[in-house]
Amino acid sequence: MAIPTFLVTGGAGFIGSNFILLARQNAWAKIINLDKLTYAGNLQNLTSLATDPDYIFVQGDIGDRPLLDQILQKYQPDYIINFAAESHVDRSILTPEIFIQTNVLGTFHLLEASLNYWQNLDPAKQKTFKFLHISTDEVYGSLAPTEPPFTETNLYKPNSPYAASKASSDHFVRAYFATYGLPTLCTNCSNNYGAYQFPEKLIPLMILNAVEQQPLPIYGDGQNIRDWLYVADHCEAIYRVLTDGRIGETYNIGGLNELTNLAVVEKICVLLNELRPCKNFDYGSLITFVRDRAGHDRRYAIDCTKITQELGWQPKENFGSGMVKTVHWYLDNSLWLARVRSGDYKIWLQQNYGDR
């Protein structure tokens, strides 16, 4: 039996590239990877697939409708998985329009192209086609310390331009199912961590700064709480939703690891003290508190009951085991890090943290 073909958008990014690597490792599907290659898209993540005949890369924008139509007609994918997004809150505060262009308008154009493609498929393939949209828990807003974790029925209350743009894209996906019957699915995940994450995000930024004995800047009092999801667990969950999820449904995916930002950074310092010790030096001494960012949500937490009960998924990694793998990966991949830490990355660090 022939394996299916997935069109993966944003597949050169952090989560997308991890998903593609796992998909090819497990022979889940042939992969067509469409990525614009913005600053966070990195084809070096996928160099192990360079000679894989069942992996094809196409550089392009999900907002380019003629290109989308061409790809869909040429490769005839069985499923579409939309990872493509601008995803960093701090950048959305500085340049919100980019997030509207990619996350809202880009998703709209992808939905339009997908709808046209699906409507013209033969009945058998039309019946099995699926469109899976990858989103975030930030669409739900912020939780008080004693509130229960987010479920799929929580109201949307986005507090940053990034979260608002993703909330809008989620609504469009739902609308295309309700209005046109396009067979869609949506997942909302908590904070991911693991290999290949661009070092603007908390965990890789702290690992790299610590190794270079640079300050470890933590916003506010460090008590903002996030649920942490190891990226390989997330990718397994995505595949489970894609293959077995109920059409039109949303599934929340979390790591069941609620921790303060300060606790996360302290854990990194403890691991580095063990894995890369420096005589008479404690990495924890680098922790520095800086002025909080605007609209900083206090707490996120995900209730995974639905995906666990319906699809039998639960995370394999706890935060301790996942962090050991993550810190080892960054310590062992200095060449990858050197290549991604370009001049643009240094400019961003100065712009975001320089005056705090």
Task: Give a summary of the structure in a few sentences.
With 356 residues, this protein is of the alpha/beta class. The chain has helices at 14-25, 65-75, 89-94, 96-119, 123-128, 161-180, 202-211, 231-244, 261-275, 305-311, 319-332, 334-340, 343-353, and strands at residues 5-9, 30-35, 55-59, 79-82, 130-136, 184-189, 191-193, 216-219, 225-230, 250-253, 258-260, 287-290. It has 13 helices and twelve strands.
Structural notes for this entry:
The protein is of the alpha/beta class and 356 residues long. It has a domain at 5-194 and 229-255 and 297-317: NAD(P)-binding Rossmann-like Domain (Rossmann fold, 3-Layer(aba) Sandwich), CATH 3.40.50.720. It is 44% helix and 16% strand. The chain is built from 13 helices and twelve strands. The protein is globular.
Short key terms for the protein model shown above:
single chain, about 350 residues, alpha/beta, Rossmann fold, 7-stranded parallel beta sheet, 3-stranded mixed beta sheet, globular
How much of the sequence lies in strands comes to 15-25%
Strand order of the largest sheet: 3-2-1-4-5-6-10
Major sheet attributes: 7 strands, parallel
Summed over residues and divided by their number, the pLDDT gives a mean of 93
Question: What's the topology here?
Answer:
Blueprint: E1 5-9, H1 14-25, E2 30-35, E3 55-59, H2 65-75, E4 79-82, H3 89-94, H4 96-119, H5 123-128, E5 130-136, H6 161-180, E6 184-189, E7 191-193, H7 202-211, E8 216-219, E9 225-230, H8 231-244, E10 250-253, E11 258-260, H9 261-275, E12 287-290, H10 305-311, H11 319-332, H12 334-340, H13 343-353
Parallel strand pairs: 1-2, 1-4, 2-3, 4-5, 5-6, 6-10, 7-9, 8-12
Antiparallel strand pairs: 9-11
